[in-house]
Write a sequence for this structure.
């Protein structure tokens, strides 16, 4: 009873759905591990660990603590999930997922943030898909937003992707996904280099999708795999600026030069008009631009054409929603 009360307190006195019950009749599935990155969100992380510990697949859980100062490490060590804790001693951003993937030995890795978790059976379904489709590199899951389990708006965007289907892949081919609701083939993820150091954090998923696809791996949206996401309600200062910076850096890293130059000119124009966040995004881009140029590698023609198809669809929907 004491453990139940503690979990209820962490979940806001019952405001969130309780962790899904483990199914004793379902054998564990050792094909997939779960990697979680966190920083100073102890209570949210503990809720996530409660849910992950209850999964019938009984996955190994690896938590990367990005320099928390709120007692996160001690709480993880004491949690019943038995999660393995990695402490790089600094904030590694999204690169913490790379660190976890290098330490994990299972063939597949599911990524959660400290505010997301996997539905019972989702990891088994994903592993079955990877087993059945050798070219499959990443599965973007259907995501339910808590509390209330509303559909994540990005799901609808991914579901109507105009990219053509392939007979050797399940689901709908995409070039984007939600980082806290994705499962990867570990070898593909590591071959692509994981998340890129130039971006650090924020809109880092697009570049990984580009790089996996460029290597010939399939990136798909598959709604039969389900994740849950319970984002906090507090504002995240600077988030929009970070997303704009990294979107432009992604262009410099992989897109044709005219695309990157147009994006930079647009941001310069917005800075001149004193549009909110534009100057900060421009400064951040220029600071990281030398590194981006050193790591610049144009996408293969087939991938660039897929990117342009997605951009045309997005523009059309903006004009005719």
């Amino acid at each position: 009873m004491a453990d139940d009360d503690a979990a209820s307190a962490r979940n806001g006195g019952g405001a969130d759905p309780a962790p899904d019950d483990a199914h004793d009749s379902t054998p564990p599935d050792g094909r997939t591990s779960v990697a979680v990155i966190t920083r100073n969100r102890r209570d949210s992380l503990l809720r996530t660990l409660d849910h992950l510990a209850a999964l019938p697949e009984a996955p190994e859980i690896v938590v990367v603590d990005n320099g928390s100062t709120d007692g996160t490490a001690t709480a993880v060590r004491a949690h019943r999930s038995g999660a393995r804790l990695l402490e790089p001693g600094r904030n590694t951003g999204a690169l913490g997922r790379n660190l976890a993937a290098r330490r994990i030995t299972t063939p597949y890795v599911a990524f959660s943030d400290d505010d997301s978790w996997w539905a019972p059976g989702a990891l088994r379904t994903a592993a079955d898909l990877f087993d059945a489709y050798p070219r499959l590199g990443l599965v973007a899951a259907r995501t339910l937003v808590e509390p209330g389990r509303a559909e994540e708006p990005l799901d609808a965007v991914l579901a109507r992707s105009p990219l053509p289907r392939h007979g050797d892949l399940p689901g709908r081919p995409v070039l984007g996904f939600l980082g806290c609701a994705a499962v990867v083939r570990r070898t593909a993820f590591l071959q692509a280099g994981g998340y890129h150091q130039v971006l650090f954090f924020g809109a880092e998923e697009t570049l990984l999708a580009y790089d996996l696809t460029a290597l010939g791996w399939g990136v798909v949206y598959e709604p039969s795999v389900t994740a849950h996401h319970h984002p906090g309600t507090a504002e995240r200062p600077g988030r929009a600026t970070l997303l704009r910076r990294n979107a432009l850096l992604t262009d410099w890293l992989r897109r044709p030069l005219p695309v990157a130059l147009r994006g930079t000119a647009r941001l310069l124009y917005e800075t001149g008009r004193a549009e909110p966040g534009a100057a900060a995004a421009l400064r951040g881009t220029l600071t990281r631009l030398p590194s981006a140029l050193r790591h610049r590698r144009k996408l293969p023609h087939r991938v660039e054409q897929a990117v342009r198809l997605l951009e045309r669809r997005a523009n059309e929907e903006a004009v005719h929603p």
Notes: The radius of gyration is 20 Å. The CA atoms of residues 151 and 158 lie 12 Å apart. The longest strand covers residues 218-229. The chain has twelve helices and ten strands.
